[in-house]
User: What shape does this take?
Amino acid sequence: MDKSDTQKVPPGEGRSGMQTPPVVSPEAWETARQEMLIKEKELTRARDALAAARRRMPWTAVEKNYQFEGPQGKATLLDLFEGRPQLILYRAFFEPGVFGWPDHACRGCSFGADQVSHLAHLNARDTTLVYASRASQPDIARLKARMGWRMPWYTITDSFDLDFGVHERHGHNVFFHHNGRIFRTYFINNRGDEAMGTTWNYLDLTPLGRQEAWEDSPAGYPQTPPYKWWNWHDNYDAEPSPNPKWVEISDAGEAAFRKRPSQD
Assistant: This one.
């Protein structure tokens, strides 16, 4: 047996001193769950309201011509959009001096990268997610292959990280390309990064949001019915329009859902 194996704590051990909650009947447990559900719904509504306020944030223009290195060579900030109007750029720490180099990126950044959902769903909502570090492209390619990551990942070559508040700490910057100009629309870092990974949380950071009809968005923002745009991640290009059968199924499912009491 490896020595390290003898040092592992068996599941449950070391927790004998926990002050656990009371054990109650299933009926009492259900009452407690319903009380908690009220609070959870309040949080959901507050999160939706926050995202609506975020969509009304002022923008600031990006005036510098930032340059990156990508798998195909030199790239501008506009190139990183990949032809879509929205860009979320995460500054990950993978470079000399970072703990783990050269085999790994920062453990926190790697933890986040492991949670990134399939990008086809974000792309279907006109949004591109990219990572950027100061490591070279060969190093980044090697890291992605080792870790199984598939997001586009660029090399920072100028003052981008300093100018956008990510030279010392990680963070997500959100940009929008409109009428030939690039604008910075939002920024999160620290614990704000913890929520990132799901398509929904990414979209809630963007100026256009989820682009679904139930959202509180400014007039003229693109919106479609919920559920209809969903697709298998390998089928968006093959089926650009909502599948009539899926529209029928999702309509029936939504109607049944709405008949249930106290649903959001």
